[in-house]
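so i finally got all the pieces together for this one. its three components total, 1157 residues if u count the protein bits. some of the lines might not be protein, just check the labels. i wanna see the whole assembly predicted at once instead of chain by chain like last time, that was a mess tbh
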Amino acid sequence: MADITLGRVSAPAEGRKWRPRVPYWLLRLAQILPVVFLIVATNFFLLRLAPGDMADVMAGEAGAASMEYADQLRQQFGLDAPLLQQFLGYAGRILQFDLGWSFRNGQSVASLILARLPATVLLLVVSLTLAALIGSALGALAALSRSRAVDFVISTLSTFGFATPLFWLGLMLIVLFSVHLGWLPSSGMYTLGERATGFALVLDYAVHLVLPVLCLSTYYLAIYARLMRTSVKEVKSLDFVRTARAKGASRERTIFRHILPNAVLPVVTLTGLQFGALFSGSITVEAVFAWPGLGQLALGAVASRDLNLLLGILFVSSIFVLLVNFITDLSYRFFDPRVELSK
Amino acid sequence: MTTNRRDFIRMGGALAGLTLTPELVSQALAQQERKITHLQVSVQPEPHGIIAAIHNGNQSFVVSQNIFDGLVTFDEELNPVPLLAESWETTDGGRVITFKLRQGATWHDGKPITSADVKYSIELAKKSHPVAAPTYFHLNAIDTPDDHTVILRFAHPSLALWHILYGVRTGILPKHIYEGSDPLTNPINTKPIGSGPFLFKEWVRGSHVTLVRNPNYWDKTKPRVDQVTFRFIADAGARAIAIETGEIHYAPVPSIPLAQVKALRERKDSPLLIDTVGWEANAPIYYFDFNLEKEVFQDVRVRKAFAHAINTKILASNAFFGFATPATGPIPSYQKEFYSPDGEQYPFDPAKAERLLEEAGLKKDANGIRLKIDNLPIPYDDNFVRAAQLIQQMLKRVGVQVEIRNFDVGTYFAKLARERDFDTASAFAAAFADPQVGVFRRFWSKAKATVRGGNTSNYVSAETDRLIEATLIEGDAAKRKQLIRDFQIQVQKDLPSIPLLELQFVRVISPRLEGVNPTPYGSYASVAEIAFKD
Amino acid sequence: MTARRAILAFLRLPGGLFGGSVLLGLALAAVLAPALVSNDPLDIAGVSFLWPGEDQELPLGTDMLGRDILSGVIYGARSSLAIGVLTGVLTCLFGVAIGVVAGYRGGAVDNALMRFAELFQIMPSLLFTIVLVAAAGPSTANIVAGIAITSWPQIARLVRAETLRVKTSDFVRAGIVMGFADARIIARHVAPNVMAPAVVMVSILAGNAILTESALSFLGLGNPNIITWGSMIGAGREVLRQAWYMTAIPGAAIFVTVLALNLVGNALNDLLNPRQEVGL
């Protein structure tokens, strides 16, 4: 369902030893470019290998179209050009941020993705923020609590979180909160019809967000809780923490000034890495809750073999994850107290 | 992009111009006093376009019929009823039809609807419409002596013509918007300018299309609601819940899993009207196709054995939950005029099936398997995969091992039509109200190159071809009926495809509504006559 | 530590005991499926929509077609466990090989392999698998391949880091100086150190594979010729309101299995690397 990722995508310290003059961000950027190329190449050729293309789908949906009709469509969309030519064309256009035209939707891919992106970003950001805040707090609590019961309960709950299929959890939430209790809407992002305004509109969005966010954040809450617990436990046993305590710092001061700031670093890294995994999770959650985001768009694109659109979504989501990682890497170096110390 | 903007401004200007008339201002004020009525309609899946003349598919039709009027619509007996055409006259033994167009009907941008628009649209349909084109094949000329007269001249009379002339098959487009462009990729298609009772307002991809009342519609009694929103809820469970809770008022295309329909109907606290009315003229037939290019299926005994091995009653009750009846031939019983049960029948009889397979030389191996084949279920609904799973079990009992191969829509059609990479397929096709429109395409050797619902078996029979081709140009109803009867007997004897079930599609109607179109093509019809009772 | 003592120590951990027995039970059920239940999970066994407990013959009820749900859960264990174990092992082999090579060789080889790993960590894994399955067809082999392709970087990174650490140890340096073959050094010194965390990861990845397969089946992209817990949930979703047991039962089966795999992973981890948590 999601990636459990070990280690960093790339340790920031690696490059510094052997090429001190090149700014780190530039180095990191140079590492990113081949990955971007690999993303485009992999996806494009993967999709092209499959039988059946957009023209077949459109002709098929047209009820009883003839092969000539399908061929006519195919020619019109440039689907009969040589493969390499199609790929070069695609890569060239991508460099100009032109993601192509979705024939099935009669709209440019970029505009389709842009239209759906906010819904997915809203879902991801709210879920991730909640998961990070609550998960980290629970993890820290588990690690720092003097009561073994607290640790046991939190650890057990986080293990449960790992084992739950998100789509199944979503369906069970619908059964409970929408079907039996009738408290929350089961689908969509807002009430269609007479659109509310002002506070009522915000409330409307919030009400629709509750179940998908609850569902999507469960898994990540578990990850954060577990990671934070490990991280705090590790930092707690480090020398400088003992020194601080020995010098007479209070327990609270040690926790908030010494342990937590250091323990939170791996959590920052994870936030970047988990974006890709989080997107994976959002595909099924969007399907369950009819959330009008990129995941739904992608499933539709797979079903209708909308090549340009599917490539565009894979590309944009991959670039999105890449960028988040890039920023996390930079911010990691910026916030890392140990890096500061070594200056 | 400039075209988009210009079109947009043009449309905006047209709307702004409209709101200035005093009549409209008072109408708007009157509307403010009463509550705005907003009809919520479920359409599933989201159509790729919403203009019937350009985008073919049930979902496209349902939305399109509200934005675009056709020349005619149908009454309950499927007689043509005036819409954009006010009257018509047939002369020269059915070869010439003269239409008088409605005076005062306008496009949504304010321009009048003229014979030039109709001529342009019929020519487009003749050129590229997948279902209508064959019937227009014998159309020689379209004359437009004045702005409101259109004369169609055919080489032969065609008794199926009306099924092609109505709005779903021949959509009428504004020539001044489309002329000189490729209609398929014209950017206006995402915010169409039509002629119907509703104006296009917005299309939010993956979510909904909203239309608003056309205050300038020629029929002042319509539409009866102010707004209509077509919602696309992809998840079957979520959709069913939205319909049950009354969030959705009307679902013309099948929206609730059949598995749930039965239970919903039986529930006392859920007074939803769930009915097969409005889908009769679609008359879908569910069938089992053989790829006759595979040697094993060239033996008619094998094909007949399969027919004896499949229990259609179980399929109807368990896979389609009673919304189906066993079929007796290629033409569904809905086409009363043409339906004939006189063809050879193949009742469920596994013992006979095994005998036939033995005779055909297919002996069981050590594992009890005599034949391994694949089956491609049509990927439109999970029901068809589940039905294929039941067929898989039935054939297993006579020693035939079936591997189900499940694809997305695009791959499915590529395997069937282009690659011919399949042994058998289980699919459905709409037969419509006349065999010429929906049935012949599956058995005519000259239709073998069609993608969907075409002659996927690659069945070639000189006798069947002769009967089909004679039917197409037969002007005498009685002779035509006889030809179609002979066609059914021939096809049932050859059995290139096993007719399994006559399917029934259902639509769901909230008890709050009145005026839902009850005609056999009613599911396609506009919602202009629908109103809330309360 | 002898094998016997190791097993005893493992079983003393409550999670390990629970997870281990659940997995053992599931494995037995999967192997003995035809002996345990008489109904073919894909064939009609009785009246449709039978709730659990309504009929003694069909204790977990039937689905919309009238297929036996108990039989589906047991046969589903077969496919789910097979997919989980197969994917876990494949991922592990692939990940260990690449991780060892990258860490041991270093330089350009390391760099190239790590870019490659980055590619599959960046691309949303479920989306990638969906595309692969949509392109190459929904066979079990393709599903396993899709999951493995997007999971190996996790093991590769772990193994690479471990290899880098071992490489600087005195044993290995001495080995290099003495001119031992790379293969011998890797086999003698790198592999033993790396196997423990890799084994831990396999159990967790197997759990993830089961979750991913169920998500694919749920989305209708699974193999229709076999019954899996995900496909059962996908079918049940349509009738969620009237028959939620059809969704709840296979979902609970997934939950328990993945939970057991995670618990076993944790227990193995506590046993094999007492100082190190699974570095999520």
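The two ends of chain B are 45 Å apart (CA to CA).
Chain B has a mean pLDDT of 85.
anyway lmk what u think
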